[in-house]
Write the structure tokens for this entry.
Amino acid sequence: MPLITPHPALEIKDIEIHQPMQWLALAWKDIERCPTAGVTHGLILAVVAGGLFWFARDSFWWIAAMLSVCMVIAPLLATGLYDISRRLERGEEATLADAFRIWTSGDKRLIFFGLLLSLSSAGWVLCSAALIQWMVPASVHTPADFVRLVVLQPNSGLFELWVIMGALMAAPMFASTLVTIPLLMDHPTLTLQQAILTSWRVVALNPFSMACWAGILCLFTALGIGSAFLGLLGVVPMLGHASWHAYRDLVVYDPTVL
């Protein structure tokens, strides 16, 4: 008998591969209806990410750690945007104060999930450091060292191996976070284990659609970071609202089975 069983009232839907584009369209409508909340969320992450990057600009490993911190902050920060989309979906008024209220709710499940995300991000940094330290004879300290000794090193295959390792570690993290946070917000009685299991079931049932969605997330994130973090002003609200609509399309709650 499994230790964690699926929640009987949660049904996973099979969606079309082009469905993520509809999530982005719905996200844009949410931004138009409540622009202040979206811009504020983007501004917070842009300031935090930009400040951390400036602090760590001369150390490659500090940059890697700071980016990992931002990857942890982003999904937790998006809880405010999820609540905005939820209220708009119900036909209610939505304000920035509602988003702040979610941040200060003190939900222990979200706090514990944030700690798990932090441990996963720290694990990625440590594994990266161990791999590069093992395969590179010289030490990597600065971003220029990483480019010279890892990216541009001929015939070593280290950069390719580093990318593959990062993808292998990112895949389960993506599967674990896909709909977990909106599930926890929407269902106070749901356990963290059940929410994570549901998220994995979504990916298992929709592998190609979720691969497409993961690619969109990576593309938008790269655009946000590559624009000196200014693009995060638009990327954060777009992806935050779209993630809520993804959850609503992918998971159906049927209380009649309880």
The chain has a mean pLDDT of 87. DSSP finds twelve helices and two strands in the chain. The first strand starts at residue 10 and ends at 12. The radius of gyration is 19 Å.
